[in-house]
Amino acid sequence: MRVVVVGGGISGVAAAKAALLLGSEVTILEASSSLGGLMAKIANCRVGFKTFFDEIRNHPGLEVITGATIEWASERGGLFEILLEDGSSISASSIVVASGAQPYEPQRKGKRVMTSLEYDRLIDQETERLPEGLRRIAFVLCVGSRSREYPLCSSVCCSYTLRQIRWTLQRAKPEVTVFYNDLRLSGQEFFLEKALREAGVRFLRTSSRNFEETEEGVWVTYYVGGRIRQERFDSIVLSCAL
């Protein structure tokens, strides 16, 4: 019995691992040139993904095909036939679709306004320090979620942002402010939040915030404590929903 997993990110590898444990042969189809998906773009996750995949990398029942594009798939009598763009075909008893998540892409970005994934590349684990000029940084949570238009919670942005702040403080000592609607944490993340507060990170709960980028920095206007306030930051990191 062969299981085809469409997508070679963390979900696809987890599905492949489960199928292998159940005794199935598994083929992972990945459209890009390497496995990892979003995990491969996050500095603090690449090592973890490699370790996770290494558990099945040399399994005799595993086949990995990268650069794979599916032309079509059909089912007859409980069996699936998958045709790839290169003309090859695969027969399978089951197909698992794990094509991954797409981060929300905000319309307003700039030189000093970046998404959390863009900031992650900036503070890659191989980088020993932050670029010059980042003395005041603001992290904005719930971008693309927890709003009237998109009321659902992505559930990973809060913890991801706290870890980014921890990496930031390990490299430099900037002033850090977090703008948030709610903090949805679990387990050890509560202790991390407490440690960051004790380290001087400022957490401001406000759902109303606007920003304007200038040559001097990014001006953030927000509503808190019954008053409208305005502050300038060197950079803003948008923690976008998945």
Topology:
Blueprint: E1 2-6, H1 10-21, E2 25-30, H2 43-54, E3 62-66, E4 70-76, E5 79-84, E6 89-92, E7 94-97, E8 113-115, H3 116-122, E9 136-143, H4 157-171, E10 175-180, H5 189-198, E11 202-205, E12 209-213, E13 218-224, E14 227-233, E15 235-240
Parallel strand pairs: 1-2, 1-7, 2-3, 8-15, 9-10, 9-15, 10-11
Antiparallel strand pairs: 4-5, 5-6, 12-13, 13-14
Helix pairs in contact: 4-5
Give the structure's gist in a few sentences.
This protein is 23% helix and 34% strand. It is of the alpha/beta class and 242 residues long. The model has no long low-confidence stretch (mean pLDDT 88).
Characterization of the model:
The protein is built from five helices and 15 strands. With 242 residues, it is of the alpha/beta class. The protein folds into two domains: 2-97, FAD/NAD(P)-binding domain; 113-240, 3-Layer(bba) Sandwich (FAD/NAD(P)-binding domain). The strands form four sheets. A five-stranded parallel sheet has the order 8-15-9-10-11. Strands 3-2-1-7 form a four-stranded parallel sheet, covered by helices on one side. Strand 12 (209-213) and strand 13 (218-224) form a beta hairpin. Helix 4 packs across helix 5. It is elongated, with a radius of gyration of 22 Å. The two termini are 33 Å apart. The model has no long low-confidence stretch (mean pLDDT 88).
